[in-house]
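Input record, target 12 of the design panel.
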């Protein structure tokens, strides 16, 4: 199977001179987490110059260096990752998945003859895992059990720092050994924007440190049983638009977490075997 068989051909892009508030609005409307960034040159040709993700925005908005700036003051060009890795549509999906894992990225623009013809994301790979042989592999065989968790009363800046340092996209929120919620890079980005809309600039730097995880976490978290199959998980993730899911046992005790990255790793291993 090749990238052209799974890639999204409708590519939503954003101009480097737009701001991150525009990016988040597009992401929310389209239910996507990353956008290729373009620059329109003198010949009216759209040149791919970067890629921007929800995580990029969350990290920048939480930075003390930019703490007093409104989201509308951040041009995409100051937040994006420049010179993005690209693939051609003829590339094998196993090779593309491996490229994604090795470079810790969640999406790769597809470029043929210097023109963006599509984009392939972790979601596109997950779509390939809804049947054989993935209905014979259990979630508990692939989930991570060395969990990083956080308390509802921990400060949001602490959660942001953990996400940066551990290079993860989400943190289960635990209270008295019970799963109370989950906080993601997207939650942090959205909360920072909302916060800056209502708090005067001169107070933002001090007050932002008083935000706690409980203020923004998603409650009533959807989970999956550790004995579900990867095929079941893939269908669940696609239906709910989840990138990661806490895993529980029969007693509803949290035993792990599984993400789209874990599924991509499985695809890489399967392709190498075959």
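The sequence produced for target 12 reads:
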């Amino acid at each position: 199977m090749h990238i052209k068989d799974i890639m999204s051909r409708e590519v939503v892009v954003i101009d480097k001179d737009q701001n991150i508030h525009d990016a988040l609005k597009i992401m929310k409307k389209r239910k996507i987490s990353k956008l290729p960034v373009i620059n329109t040159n003198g010949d009216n040709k759209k040149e791919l110059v970067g890629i921007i993700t929800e995580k990029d925005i969350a990290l920048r908005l939480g930075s003390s260096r930019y703490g007093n700036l409104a989201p509308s003051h951040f041009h995409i060009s100051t937040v994006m990752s420049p010179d993005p890795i690209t693939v051609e549509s003829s590339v094998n999906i196993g090779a593309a998945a491996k490229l994604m894992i090795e470079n810790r990225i969640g999406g790769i623009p597809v470029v043929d003859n210097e023109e963006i013809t599509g984009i392939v994301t972790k979601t596109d790979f997950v779509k390939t895992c809804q049947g054989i042989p993935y209905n014979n592999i259990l979630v508990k065989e692939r989930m991570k059990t060395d969990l990083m968790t956080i308390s509802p009363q921990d400060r949001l800046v602490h959660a942001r720092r953990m996400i940066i340092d551990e290079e993860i996209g989400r943190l289960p929120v635990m209270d008295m050994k019970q799963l109370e919620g989950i906080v993601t890079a997207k939650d942090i980005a959205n909360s920072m924007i909302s916060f800056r809309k209502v708090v005067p600039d001169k107070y933002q730097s001090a007050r932002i440190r008083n935000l706690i995880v409980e203020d923004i976490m998603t409650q009533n978290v959807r989970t999956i049983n550790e004995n579900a199959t990867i095929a079941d998980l893939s269908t669940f993730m696609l239906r709910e638009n989840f990138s990661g899911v806490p895993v529980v046992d029969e007693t509803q005790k949290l035993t792990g977490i599984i993400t789209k990255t874990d599924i991509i790793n499985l695809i890489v291993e399967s392709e190498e075997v075959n």
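The longest strand covers residues 46-53.
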